[in-house]
């Protein structure tokens, strides 16, 4: 039922946003600034930038103690990093967004299970 799915998705989105707010305080400016520099580097391929994003997410997941599933933490951290990068350098929004979508697509099976 599409209406039920929309409500489930809203609930999941609200939960992820709440987790994101908690993680937002833990993400160091250095990580964001490093990623901004990678996005600004025109010599890096899309795959290389996605790999750098993945490394940053993994680093943050290890640094933030959490009892939640690793995949959920990775999903939320990727979204928070996207927000922080776009806030730091708004001109990168489109590039950061597409990279994040590519990164999150790697978590597709987890997202499907979550819904």
Automatic annotation (TrEMBL):
InterPro entries: Bcl-2-like_sf, BID. Keywords: Apoptosis, Cytoplasm, Membrane, Mitochondrion, Mitochondrion outer membrane. The keyword Ribosomal protein does not apply. GO terms for biological process: apoptotic mitochondrial changes; positive regulation of extrinsic apoptotic signaling pathway; positive regulation of intrinsic apoptotic signaling pathway; positive regulation of release of cytochrome c from mitochondria. GO terms for cellular component: cytosol; mitochondrial outer membrane. Gene3D superfamilies: Blc2-like. It is found in: Cytoplasm; Mitochondrion outer membrane. Pfam families: BID. This is BH3-interacting domain death agonist. It comes from Calypte anna (Anna's hummingbird).
């Amino acid at each position: 039922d599409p209406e039920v799915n929309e409500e489930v998705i809203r609930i999941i989105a609200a939960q992820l946003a709440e987790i994101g707010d908690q993680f937002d305080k833990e993400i160091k400016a250095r990580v964001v600034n490093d990623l901004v520099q990678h996005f600004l580097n025109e010599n890096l391929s899309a795959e290389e930038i996605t790999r750098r994003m993945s490394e940053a997410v993994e680093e943050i997941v290890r640094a933030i103690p959490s009892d939640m599933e690793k995949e959920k933490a990775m999903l939320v951290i990727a979204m928070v990093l996207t927000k922080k990068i776009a806030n730091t350098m708004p001109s990168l929004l489109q590039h950061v967004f597409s990279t994040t979508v590519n990164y999150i697509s790697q978590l597709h099976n987890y997202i499907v299970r979550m819904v």
